[in-house]
Amino acid sequence: MRTLLGAAVLVPALLLAHLAVALPIYSGPAGKAEAHLAAGLAQAAAAVPGGEPVTPTVTGGSVDNLQQLLATTGDGLALARADVARAAWLGTGRFQSPHPDLRALAVLHTSYLAVLTRQDLGEVRQLRGKRVAVSPAATGDREALLVLLEHAGVARAAVPVQITADPLAALHAGQVDAAFVVVAPDDVSLTAALAAGDRWLSLPTAKELPESAWPWQVATVDRAQFQQLGDKKVVTLSVPQVLIGRSNLPRLAVDDLVEAMWGQPDLLRQGDRGLAGIQRALAAMPSPLPLHPGAADAYARGGPLDKPIDVRVTVWLIAISAVDLQKGTFNFDATIELRWLDPRLGPEDPRPFEVMNADEVEVTPNGYEPHGPWHSLNWRMHGRARSQFDLHAYPFDAQRFELAFEHPLLQYGQLVFHCETRWHPEAGLTLDQRLGPGFSLQDWQLQAVRSEEVKAKYGPTEFFSRYNFVVEVRREVLRFAVADLAPLLLMVLMALAASLIPAEKLDGKLLLTVLALLCSVELQVNAAGHLPEVGYLTVVDWSYFAAYASIGLATLQVIGEYRAHARGRDDVAARLRKWGVLATVAAFALPLAWMLLVRRVAG
Question: Of 79, 215, 318, 367, whose CB is crowded by the most CB atoms within 10 A?
Answer without folding.
Answer: 79
